[in-house]
């Protein structure tokens, strides 16, 4: 039997009382200190709430052969500190509404906003729908009316001293112009060898000679078009004016092509993952419109859209999620896109190829809101050049807070070379066999919309009504696929077609090759070289540049002008051709050559350092 404990002394009673009052705050301090010590031990790129501004120089990082997904940890739910009033106010944090205690510490999510904006501590109501406003939008005189992410908008272009113009992406505000036009009233026409077409409300001229073509009447529909009477490069032994297929058998790789000519595409070409680097734009206080869970949901949807039951799917993965403190990017202007693409923050994050994905508050194009936008590979989509002039090798995908669930997949499709299913490109070049009554050297379906034959013609949502269960009724009797991700029927989208999937693989292979020549010192090359180490990747050509230490040669993306076409500078040319001037004639894109160059009479020419193909220099335009 043990003795009962002695009663505590007065001092011990005081100490015990103090401990009972202090243990909770001390525990909070200990936990906070341990968390701080742990965060200090993290790599600085994971720990940083706000990376350095884009104006600060950065250096290229070493290649990361097997990058692990970057962990962007969600804000934890915590108990209010003792003495702090719980749920004192609501505040917008990372796109959601949070409860904040009386000491200013966020404690728990009050409301998850999803794609809806958070304003003044509350989520705005869900998208109300756009009623009778078509998804593509329209111009009501000089007022741009449309629907972005399920929310209607109205922008008075006239009040800004501008005009409303309907484009393939929807209505935009354009300044007054002496070349203003309406496509319905001005079909394409020929002015000599120039094709005059109304493109996005502006009368534009395309010199067909720059494409090695002449202006004439298209065999497909009869409209004026640039007609290319023969391929720019004819292989030796080929007598078909439409060109002969390349029957060279190569090892099968992931590129959407039948490399080994066995009738199957990519049957043994394993694709690497399509890596994304996600840039979440925030303000000076580190606050933006996207929550951690929302970014994860977007990535899960991408995995769904790009995974397929056939052999043409792509594995999409995020290797980094970076919070970028750049308040000016929270309202992204599409007219400033090229500067953003070239910024080191976006274009030089890692040496290996990746797709920059920018998540921001709002996106505007010519004063009108958009749910998203993207650059296309070297100005091309659907396998044809759509944008004239030299293009940047870098690009990005940008998505606004107010968007559809399929917006990111749609814009990534553009980045990977896909057009809209309702695309209209009056400046396409049509290869023809001039010796057989002008027959086309392509299937007619290539000239319909997006340039792919397994997507049916789509006149667009201006003339097609979406009925119950996504049944479409189009004024001209067309039957487009409302479930195609590249169509403008966002609530019906279900996936990509097989041809679209193969074209994205093709673009993936090209972009990966280009990327290695766009980082660091680029790819040195020799003009006219065909051997590895001196030749450029496909769709790039060797160019001369002037540097501080003298001239040098590097690979650059091909321009829109084919060999034999009229050029104004070296970056205009393609297929290895160089822009060669002539004293009394137009400059031409001319291939350097040797005895093995196909379809070419090779000769030395005064003033040119290497032999050239005189057939290109003396191309007949008539």
Keywords, please?
622 residues, alpha+beta, five-stranded mixed sheet, four-stranded mixed sheet, 8 helices, 35 strands, globular, disordered N terminus
Question: Summarize this, please?
Answer:
This protein is 15% helix and 25% strand. With 622 residues, it is of the alpha+beta class.
List the helices and strands and how they pair.
Blueprint: H1 10-40, H2 44-47, E1 89-93, E2 96-100, E3 106-111, E4 118-119, E5 122-123, E6 138-140, E7 143-148, E8 151-156, E9 163-167, E10 170-174, E11 189-191, E12 194-199, E13 202-207, E14 214-217, E15 224-228, E16 274-282, H3 292-306, E17 316-325, E18 331-333, H4 337-342, H5 344-347, E19 355-359, E20 362-365, E21 368-370, E22 372-374, E23 380-381, E24 384-385, E25 397-399, H6 407-415, E26 429-433, E27 439-440, E28 464-466, E29 472-474, H7 498-516, E30 540-547, E31 550-557, E32 578-582, E33 585-590, E34 602-603, E35 612-613, H8 614-617
Parallel strand pairs: 15-26, 16-17, 16-19, 18-20, 19-25
Antiparallel strand pairs: 1-2, 2-3, 4-5, 6-7, 7-8, 9-10, 11-12, 12-13, 14-15, 20-21, 22-25, 23-24, 26-27, 28-29, 30-31, 32-33, 34-35
């Amino acid at each position: 039997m043990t003795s009962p404990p002695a009663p505590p002394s007065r001092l011990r009673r005081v100490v015990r009382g103090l401990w009972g009052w202090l243990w909770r705050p001390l525990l909070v301090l200990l936990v906070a200190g341990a968390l701080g010590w742990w965060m200090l031990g993290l790599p600085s790129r994971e720990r940083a709430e706000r990376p350095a501004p884009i104006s600060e120089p950065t250096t290229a990082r070493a290649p990361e052969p097997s990058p692990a997904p970057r962990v962007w940890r969600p804000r934890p739910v915590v108990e209010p500190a003792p003495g702090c009033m719980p749920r004192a106010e609501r505040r917008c944090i990372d796109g959601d509404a949070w409860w904040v205690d009386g000491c200013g510490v966020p404690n728990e999510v009050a409301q998850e906003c999803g794609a809806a904006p958070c304003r003044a501590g509350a989520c705005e109501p869900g998208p109300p729908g756009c009623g009778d406003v078509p998804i593509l939008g329209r111009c009501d005189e000089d007022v741009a009316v449309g629907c972005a992410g399920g929310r209607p908008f109205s922008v008075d272009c006239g009040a800004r001293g501008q005009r409303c113009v309907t484009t393939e992406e929807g209505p935009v505000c354009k300044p007054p112009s002496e070349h203003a036009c309406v496509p319905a009233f001005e079909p394409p026409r020929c002015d000599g060898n120039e094709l005059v077409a109304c493109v996005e409300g502006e009368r534009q001229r395309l010199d067909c000679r720059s494409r090695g073509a002449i202006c004439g009447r298209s065999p497909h529909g009869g409209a004026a078009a640039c007609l290319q009477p023969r391929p720019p490069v004819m292989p030796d032994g080929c007598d078909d004016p439409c060109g002969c297929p390349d029957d060279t058998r190569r090892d099968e790789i992931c590129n959407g092509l039948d490399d080994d000519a066995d009738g199957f595409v990519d049957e043994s070409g394993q694709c690497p993952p399509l890596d994304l680097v996600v840039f979440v734009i925030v303000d000076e206080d580190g606050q933006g419109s996207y929550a951690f869970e929302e970014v994860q949901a977007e990535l899960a949807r991408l995995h769904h859209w790009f995974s397929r039951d056939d052999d043409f799917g792509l594995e999409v993965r995020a290797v980094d999620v970076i919070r970028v403190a750049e308040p000016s990017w929270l309202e992204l202007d599409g007219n400033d896109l090229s500067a953003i693409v070239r910024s080191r923050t976006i274009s030089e994050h890692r040496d290996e190829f990746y797709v920059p994905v920018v998540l921001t508050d709002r996106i505007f194009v010519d004063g009108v809101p958009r749910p998203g936008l993207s650059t296309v590979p070297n100005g091309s989509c659907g396998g044809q050049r759509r944008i004239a002039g030299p293009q940047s090798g870098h690009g990005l995908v940008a998505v606004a807070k107010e968007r559809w669930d399929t917006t990111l997949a749609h814009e990534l499709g553009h980045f990977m070379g896909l057009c809209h299913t309702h695309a209209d490109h009056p400046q396409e070049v049509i290869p023809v066999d001039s010796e057989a009554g002008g027959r086309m050297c392509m299937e007619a379906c290539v000239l319909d919309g997006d340039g792919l034959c397994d997507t049916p013609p789509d006149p667009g949502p201006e003339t097609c009504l979406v009925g119950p269960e996504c049944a479409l009724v189009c004024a001209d009797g067309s039957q487009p696929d409302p479930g195609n991700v590249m169509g403008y029927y966002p609530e019906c989208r279900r996936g990509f077609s097989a041809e679209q999937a193969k074209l994205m693989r093709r673009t993936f292979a090209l972009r990966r090759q280009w990327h290695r020549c766009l980082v660091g010192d680029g790819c040195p090359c020799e003009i006219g070289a065909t051997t590895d180490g001196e030749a450029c990747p496909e769709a790039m050509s060797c160019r001369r540049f002037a540097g501080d230490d003298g001239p040098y040669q590097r690979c650059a993306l091909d321009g829109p002008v084919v060999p034999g076409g009229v050029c104004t500078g070296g970056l205009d040319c393609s297929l290895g051709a160089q822009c060669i001037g002539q004293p009394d004639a137009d400059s031409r894109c001319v291939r350097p050559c040797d005895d093995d160059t196909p379809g070419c009479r090779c000769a030395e020419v005064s003033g040119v350092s290497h032999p050239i193909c005189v057939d290109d220099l003396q191309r007949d335009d008539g």
